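Objective 1b: paired records.
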Amino acid sequence: MLKLYYLPGACSFVPHVALQWSGLDYVAEEVSRDKIKSAEYRSLNPQGQVPLLVDGNWALSQNIAIIDYINDLAPDKGIYGAASATDPKIRAKARQWLAFANSDLHTKFKPLFGAARMVDGEAAQNNLIAYASSDVENTFASLDKMLAQQDYLTGNSISIADVYIFIEMQWAQRCKIDLSKYQHLTSFAQRVSADNGVNTVLKAQGLI
């Protein structure tokens, strides 16, 4: 049986949803920040991060790798979109947006979560946070414009890339970045949260 280690509301939310969509047998175990830095956990993932997927005596880290593996195990479950099993262009677009969420946008949050580790002094930290907040908001503003034309990142069906953007919207809220003025983005988040698999994982992780 597959086992996913996760931190509630972190990027590990995304493969948790992929597993829920997949219909595969799995268990999801919440871990603490102390746990993922332990020697026991680092023996499975030396980076001391989530997500971590264990399949028997085999371990796999990194979001995109884990999601690809789940998709390979359940290729007909639409993890990259409703028609992704038969359309390589749809899969490619979903992976494009997944990579964007995992690298481009995710990276922009690092100063918001750890300014004190990056620069010294309260003034410098506040300036870094202000800059990063503006950068994150501008990125979401561009997504809002795109979502004026379609319901989801790849068109009219949800994919796992949408789930990543959705959880990053929750991070923005935690960082006091107001996205409520972006109407299309707000509607998008409502559509994603209404998905059965997403809703199940939101409850399982104690996020609603």
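Objective 1b, second protein:
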Amino acid sequence: MRTTSTSPLSLSFMLGLTQGTFGLIWSLLFEHATYGVINWQAGLWPVIVLGILSSFGAQTLQIVGQRYTDPVPAGVILMTESMFGSIFFGCFGL
């Protein structure tokens, strides 16, 4: 079933907001003891680049692309995400 009435950008924003909120809650519950060890000046920029530009940007492009793709090919494409991640990780040692 294709949904064309929902804006892909609003859906992506809501997903990002939910992921950020629950990630912050998780961090405050289980990782707050290590906050003092973190070099925030060196670590904040990579987190912003990876979290906002890479993850949120890729997720937004994925949602926009799904809007114009039939459900079965979109499902097959999305199922190969972990396979390609493993291949790139193995080939490039990232």
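The longest helix spans residues 40-67. The mean pLDDT is 85.
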